[in-house]
Amino acid sequence: MEVLIIGAGASGIACAIRIKQNNPDIGVTVLEHLEEACKKIHATGNGRCNITNTNADGFANTKRFFESIGLVLRESGEGRMYPYSNQAASVVTVMLSACEKLGVKIVTDCTVNKAEKLDNQFNVFTDKGVFSSDVLVLATGGKAQPALGSDGSGYVLAKSFGHSVTALSPALVQLKSSTKNCRALKGVRAKCNVKIETNGEIIAEDFGELLFTEYGISGIVTMNLSEKINDENLKSGSERSVAIVDFVPEISEEELLSHYEKFGDFEGILPHKLCKVLIRQSDGDCAKMAQYVKHWRLIVTGTKGYDYAQITKGGVALDELKDGNESALCDNLYIVGELTDNQFRCGGFNLDYAFNSGIAAADKITM
Fold it and tell me: What is the C-alpha to C-alpha distance for residues 161 and 64, in angstroms, rounded to an integer?
C-alpha cells in the first residue's frame, strides 16, 4: 500500500509517523510546498509550542504519541502542555527524526496543482511530477498565517472530490477598534469579562486577559471571542459589533462608587493609565467612571486578518467525514487538521486536534 499526504504540518507528519509505526511496510510520502516541513510548529506558543492541554479530549492520546517518539512534555499552568525543553524546535526535531528513522519520504518545495482519483488510484499533479497512491490524506491547513504554509489550497482540493466548505474567517486573532482610547491604553493588561454585541444582541462572552494595543485589543479573551467577528459583514455594514468590557467582574458598580467616595480614585483597583483615561472620559464624574469600568464599549471594526490569525474558522463540513476523518464521499480519502470545520479555544486545544486527527486517520488507514 502507498499513502500520499499533502501537507507536512502537525496533522500530516503525525499521520505519517503513526502509519509507519503501525505498519512499517506501508510506503508513505509527504508533499510540502514550503522549503521545510513543520514550519508553522516553530511559531506556535510563542516559540514554545503549546502541544496539547490536559483538558483536551485527545490529551492522553497525544501524550502517548509523543512519548512513543521520545518527546517529554510538561505542564505550564491552566493545563497547557509544552515540550520539556520549552522549545518548539524540539518538537520539530523529534518528529522529523522519527520520520527519517521510520522511512517516511518528505518532498519539500513541491507545489500541488490538482488531484484526482481514477478507478482506485489517486494521482496528484505537482511541479515535481505526478505522485500516485492508494490512499490520499489532505493535511494542508487552513488560511491562517499563509507565510507559514497555510494558503487555503486544501479547500480547492477537498472541493475537487465533492466536499463542501463552510464559511471561512480568521479566528484566534486580534481585533481592531476605532475607539481612540485603545491607543492611549497601549500596553495595559487586565483580567476582564468581555462580551461581543452584534446588531444590539450579545452573541458571546468570555473571561480572561485583555491587552490594549495601538490598533485595538489582543490577549487570550480577545482571541477566544474573535471567531464571532465577521470582517465581510462589518465591511458591508450589515453588522455592527461592539466589545463590552467589565474590568472588575468581581466588584459591583455600587462597591466601586463606595471605594471612590472613600479613597477619591480607583488607583488601588485599576491600572494607572486606565484611571487617567476614565477621568478624562467622564469629566471626573465618579458615577460615570464606575459605569464605564463595568460597561466599557469598544467599537470593533474587524479582525487583524489571516496573516495574524492562529487558526481558520470553518472548513470541510464535518457531516461529510466518517470515523478517523475518512471522507464519506470518496473512499480512501482522509481530511485532517485545520482543513476541517473544527475550532477550539486558545491553550493547546487546536494543536491537539491537529495531531489527533492525523493519528486517527493513520489508525483507520492501517486497520
Answer: 33
Residue type, 193: N
Burial class (CB in 10 A: 0-12, 13-18, 19+), 104: buried
* Rounded-to-integer distance, Cα 208 and Cα 350, Å: 18
pLDDT tens figures, 158-208: 999 999 999 999 999 999 999 889 999 999 999 999 999 999 999 999 999
Residues 328-360 have pLDDT tens digits of 999 999 999 999 999 999 999 999 999 999 999
pLDDT given at position 180? 87
Q: Choose among 48, 79, 87: nearest CA to 63.
A: 79
**Cβ density class 335-356: b for 16+ within 10 Å, e for less:** bbbbbbbbbbbbbbbbbbbbbb
Write the pLDDT tens digit of every residue in 110-140.
999 999 999 999 999 999 999 999 999 999 9
C-alpha distances out from residue 259 to 76, 201, 250, Å: 36, 32, 14
Whether the Cβ atoms of residue 43 and residue 18 lie closer than 8 Å to each other: no
Q: Are 341 and 314 contacting, i.e. CB atoms less than 8 angstroms apart?
A: yes
Q: How far apart are CA 210 and CA 207, in angstroms?
A: 9
Pairing of strands 135-138, 333-335: parallel
d(CA 53, CA 63): 10
> Which SS3 state, helix, strand or coil, does residue 239 take?
coil
Question: How far apart (Å, rounded) are the C-alpha atoms in residues 152 and 169?
Answer: 11
| Strands 2-6, 135-138: pairing kind | parallel
Cell 487546536 belongs to which residue? 350
6: which 3 cell numbers?
Answer: 499533502
Region of residue 276 (left: phi > 0; alpha: psi -120 to 50; beta: else) = alpha
Question: Who's near 173: CB < 8 A, 6+ residues apart?
Answer: 144, 223, 226, 303, 304, 305, 308, 309, 310
- The answer to whether the CB of 337 falls within 8 A of the CB of 313 is no
Which residue's C-alpha cell is 508553522? 40
Query: 192 and 249 in contact (C-beta within 8 Å)?
Result: yes
